[in-house]
Structure formats: C-alpha cells, structure tokens
Amino acid sequence: MSPLKTLTTTQRVLKQLSHDPRTLALVLLVPLLLIVLLRYVFYENTVLFNGIAPMLLGIFPLAMMFLVTSIATLRERTSGTLDRLMTEPISKADFIFGYAIAFSVIGFIQASLASIVILGVFDVTVMGGTLPVLITAVSAAFLGTTLGLFVSVFARNEFQAVQLIMPILMPQILLCGLFTPRDQMAPALEWLSNVFPVTYSVDAMQQVAMHTHWGSQLTRDLAIILGCGIVALFLGAATIRRKE
Amino acid sequence: MASAIKIQNLNVILGKDFEALKNISLDLSIGKIIGFIGPSGAGKTTLIRSIVGRQKLAKGSINVFGLPAGDKHLRNDVSYMTQESSVYSDLTVIENLHYFATMHDVTRQTMPSEIKRLLEVVGLTSQAKQLVGSLSGGQKQRVSLAIALIGKPRLMVLDEPTVGLDPLLREQLWALFRKFSEAGITLIISSHVMDEAERCDELVLIREGEVLTHDTPANFCKKTSSKTVEQGFVKLVGGRK
Predict the structure, then answer these.
(1) What is the pTM of this model?
(2) Nearest CA to CA, how far is B224 from chain A (Å)?
(3) What does DSSP assign to residue B153?
C-alpha cells in the first residue's frame, strides 16, 4: 500500500465528480432541500422538528454516500477500468481507501452544509455543540461509503445498484428510532435494530443533541460505526479479485 | 529465439463447465507482433486474460518473461488494454494519463515530460484537455493505448484494439504498433478481422477454444495454398468438417 497512490485515487475520484456538477449538486443540495421541506411539514410543531432534525444529520450523509459510492464503484467494474487497474501496480487497499476517503470528504461537505441549515438557519439547539455533530456526520458518511463499496458487488448494473437501497438501507432507517423510539417497537424488531449499524449513527446524533458533554455512549456509538465501516471495507476489498 | 510467453497445456473453464480454452500450448517469441486471430467467441479474450493474470486457470501454466502470469513483478512489464476502452470518460485525457502514470511510480518531476511523450506518440496533444467522454471512438482508443504505454512495458496485450475503427485510423494504429515493436516491445493483438492477421509477424489462429495453427502469415498461406489468411482459415476449418 502507498499513501501517494491512495491519495491520487482520492484525487481522481473527486476530479471525476468535479467534472459532473449536476451529480455534485444533487448530492450536496438535495438533502438541504429535504430538510427545509421537513421543517415546513412540521410547521406547527417546532418541538418535534427539533427532535428529528439532528437524527436526519445521521441519516442523510450515510444514505447519499451509500448510493453514490455503490454506483461509482459499479461503473468502475463495468467500464473495464477496474479490470485494467487489477493488472497495474496498485494495491487493492489503495483503490478501496482512495474511494473511502474521497466520499468521506464529500460527506463532510454535505454534512457541514446540512448542519448550517439545521443549526444556523432553523436554530435547532444541539447541546453537544457543532464539532461533535460534524464528527458524527462524517462517521456516518464513512459508514455509508463503505457499505456502498461492499454492496456494489451484488449489483450487475445501475438499476440493481439503485434498488439495493431498498432492502439494505430502508429497513435500517425504519428501525433506527427516527419514526418511533426503538424500545416501543416489537421486541424482535428492537433486537434487529441493535445489530443494524445505521441505528448507531442516529443514536450518536441523539447523544450529541441531548448531552452537553461527550459521553461514553457517544464514544461507543462512534466506535461501532467506524468498526462496521472498516469491516465493510475489508469485505469490499475481499470481493475484488486479481484472478477471476 | 528467446520466448516471451510460454504456455503449457492450458485449460480454462468459464462458469460451471464451459471449456473456454482446451489444452493450449504456445511459445511466443520476444519482440514480435503476435496476432490472436479467430471468430468472436473463439476464446481470444480468455487467452488474453490468462496471459495478463486476470483469469483463473483450470489446468496448465503460463510463464511470462520467466515468471508465472499475473506475478506482482510483472505489473510494470505487462500492460493490458481491454476490449472496452477502459479509461475514465469523466476525466480529461491528461487527468487519465496522470492517474495511471502515478500508479506506475512516475515521479512528480518526470510527470510532465512523460505525459508529453505519451500524448505525442498517440497524437492527442491538441485534445489533452478535453474530457475523454467527448472524444471520438478512435481517439478514446488512443487514450487507452497511451495508458498502456506508460512506464515502458516489455509486453503489451491489446484486446481488439482496432475493432469498429475506420480504415484510416486502423492504418494509423498499425503504424504505431509497428513503431512499438521496433522499440523492442512484444505485442499481442487480438482481432476477429482476418485481414489484420497479415500485418502480424506471427499468427495464432484460435477457434472454439483451440489453437488451430501458430505460424507466420506467409508460411500459413503457403501451407494452405491460399492467397490470404482468410482463405486459409476457411480452407482449414472447412477441411476439418
């Protein structure tokens, strides 16, 4: 593995995105519009919105990065470039980490913009402060990226890649505590939500929102998120083979 | 003549039980242009993927410059151009070259001159800053070829590099291949167009996963008493039936 090759891969992925301003705009701005939309859905109920908004910061970067990464890596497989790269002097780790860093950067920008809208424009109070919000959001983006990298293996084409968000991400979002507190769900579902990684990115945001100091549960949540991300990265690397 | 590639009793199974290559043995010499010629579906790409080390072998062995195919130490020596142009269409020509050159450990100091050299060889200097997606098919193919040239490879494996190109462009590409060969590079070029066989130094005719013949085009025509390789191929295959 070489840091130069990893970072050059990151730079290459970011350059590809920069040549595609429409995709970039969709990734960065759509979450903001959705947040604005939700604010006015809860027009009469500011209290409820204040409770939900931080959780959205744990979900949006994750979901967007999941989608973008899974399609970007799928394209790499179908265009023949991955085929070529696997005969070149680049390690699989350079390739995978290059992608992970690139989309975590995008996730960071997206999360920062979303935080500005939620914390700045709509004045939602987060007890823990802005920095922990950003740290948690980037972790969520990282998790989304790594899951996307891993899952793209199971898609043969773009149609399938987009559809994968339904079986893989939707159940996690439904069970993560956004719609109803997890301890009020059927016991089996609560148990299931305990093993879903998205749960911890949403819980981490709630921890940041509710506590002024950095608690041990926040540390645990972030450790789980990063741990799951790293496992997904290794699984993703294992699915790329030099010899097929 | 020293051999660049030595293939012994190679068998490749694709999917569950499709025998894509059947007991192939070949000895390909250094510095030649070697044509893998045969109809589509004959197994040319599978043989190429085996040589660059992307294909799992069921049986047999392949040695490239004395090392097993796909060996780590061969990654700088062997370059592979897949059938699709396998370049990033949402990057400019220069950005593509820069990325792959970094993978080949071209340093920051030598990068500008290396990129300049590559652009000149394939004649894309004036398109350098264009997005590859906006180029014509032939230009894309030349970007891909430029990438295959990075780091001075000893063996270039090109899968159908001239397919779908107009005659003039094909002529240009073959002039380039000849130039590479004169520089001492061994080239493997696959094609399903028989008249391309005549331009190669050595000819490997492949059909249904088997090597029908390995010879020079002139010898092959003489043996089959044909005027062209195409005629010879038809005679040979027709005779078998």
Answers:
(1) 0.90
(2) 38
(3) -
